[in-house]
Structures are given as C-alpha cells and as structure tokens.
Amino acid sequence: MTSEPGVFSDLSDMDIFSQREAIRSGSYCGHTAGLAKGKLQCNLAILPGEFADDFLTFCRLNPKSCPLAGVSEAGSPFIRRLGENVDIRTDAALYNVYRYGALDSQVQDLKSLWREDLVAFAIGCSFTFENALRRAGIAMRHIDCNVTVPMYRTSIETAASGPFGGGTVVSMRPIPVERVDEVHAICRNYPLAHGAPVHVGDPYAIGITDINLPDWGEAVSVREDEVPVFWACGVTPQAAIMRAKLPLSITHAPGAMLIADVDELTPPLYVYNDN
Predict the structure, then answer these.
(1) What integer is the mean pLDDT of 78-85?
(2) What is the dihedral sign for C-alpha 249, 79, 165, 126?
(3) Sign of the Cα pseudo-torsion (108, 113, 116, 117, in order)
(4) What's the CA gap between 140 and 229, in Å, rounded?
(5) What is the reported pTM?
(6) What is the mean pLDDT of the chain?
(7) CB atoms within 10 A of CB 207
(8) How confident is the model at residue 5 (pLDDT cuts 50, 70, 90)?
(9) What is the pLDDT of residues 50-71, one digit of tens each?
(10) Is 57 exposed, middle or buried (0-12, 13-18, 19+ CB in 10 A)?
C-alpha cells in the first residue's frame, strides 16, 4: 500500500484529531506509519462472537504476535481502553472483509456490515516502536520510501486454539549492523508493539525464500552495511483468521491501522517475557 505523497505529508503535519477525521470521513485510506506520534496504533480483528473465546485464547498463547490492547463487548463498536472517541467501524484507514477465508472486499468503513454479534480485538502495532527507533536516529526505510512495511509468512509455528493457527507473520526493517543490539534494547520497552525482534539475518532460516517478494507490503532494499531484522507482526492473527475460513471476518488492511487516543506506552492486557 503506497500512499499519495502529498496527501500523506499533509496528514503527517496534522494533530491526531484532524488525522482521525480525515480517516473517518474517507478522505484518507493509506498507510498510517509515521502518523500520530506518541499514540498507540492497533491492528484489528473482528469476528462473530461464537469464535471470540478461541481467538482470545490464540492471542494469549501467542502474545508476541498478538499483544492485546483491548477487546470489545459483543455488538459494541467501541473499546473504551483505547479512548472514548475511537469508533471501530470508521477509524481504521482501510478494512479487509473476508468470507470463508477469502478476501471479499476492501472498505473504508463498516457501517453497513456491523452486526450485534461482532467482537473486535485491538492488537498492538509495530509502528509504536518505529517512532522510538526514529527518535534514536535509526531510519525506517519503508517510511522514508512512503510504502507499507514488508511482511512475510514464516516457518515459525504459532500455538493453535480452536480453528486458529498456522505460521507466524513477521515484518522486516533493514538495520545498520552496529545498531542491532541497540534496536533490541529499545524495542523491549514496547511489549504492546511486539517487543524485541524474533530473528536477525538469514531469512531462509525462518522459511522466507525471497526477501524481495513479501507476502504483504512492498520490498525495500537492504544495504551492504545493514542486516534484515524481523519482528513478530500483527498480521499473524489476520493470517490465522484467513486460515480458519470463518463465514465472516474483518481486519484492518495491512499497514492501515486504527489510531487510538492512548499513549503508545500503554501496557498489553497480558504481559509476556521478552528475552
């Protein structure tokens, strides 16, 4: 997902309320990397209530990939933990609608699709630690190139729950070799943003056959003085939902997150040990 440069640059200079209004009104549907600095951004998974308990357990079993920021009541489009003004139906930049595991459509709001049995899960996003890395002077190439971060399916298996399971999805960012330890130290401070990387170096070691062909997002270059660094990714639950082939499921479009009103240092619902 590549955003129109002028539109994104205009949005990046706005306050969070203006950014949300641009998304809510449908005038912006691009990636949200670099927006709302200091605020939590979230992946979304929206499911019929009959599958909610199994999915909640899946998140608890896989907290690096699925760090839970909040869960709605059935039928409610609000997760109060994210802020009183955040509406799940309108405030993600773009939504993917799946039917029986296949992408059925992309929409900019869920007003016509919302049902009384739907449960929304908000899952922490890597954009939070990206802000911290950029403050430390570590460039994020996908942001500099105005593209969605590259994401890959891997051979790292998740712990299954009910119909949900499959491989872990990772996102990749090129990092200067001499700063990898610093990146680990910074990212450990953000457990709701997937914490420290899960792999550094050879992509083949985690089942990625071609780093230039991501499953989601756009490829970015890795320079001679850099190494590819991989983080657990919030698209993991999206892949698990697709694999489960539910009659209806809804997620954010990769890269097009929900911007919350709370601080990016908000703790996850379930704490994990990040070594």
Answers:
(1) 89
(2) positive
(3) negative
(4) 12
(5) 0.85
(6) 89
(7) 14
(8) very low
(9) 999 999 999 999 999 999 999 9
(10) middle
Per-residue pLDDT tens for 235-260? 899 899 999 999 999 998 877 889 88
The CATH 3.40.1640.10 domain(s) of the chain lie at 5-123+245-263
pLDDT of residue 19: 86
Question: Which of 3.40.50.12780, 1.25.40.10, 3.30.2040.10, 3.40.50.10800 would CATH assign to domain 127-235?
Answer: 3.30.2040.10
Distance from the Cα of residue 17 to its chain's centroid: 21
Residue range 211-226: average pLDDT? 94
- Residue pair 88/79 in contact by the 8 Å Cβ criterion: yes
Per-residue tokens: 37: 């600095």
Q: Is the pLDDT of residue 33 over 90?
A: no
CATH 3.40.1640.10 fits 5-123+245-263, yes or no: yes
The confidence score (pLDDT) of residue 275 equals 59
Pairing mode, if any, of strands 39-48 and 258-263? Answer: antiparallel
Q: Which tokens belong to 61?
A: 């079993």
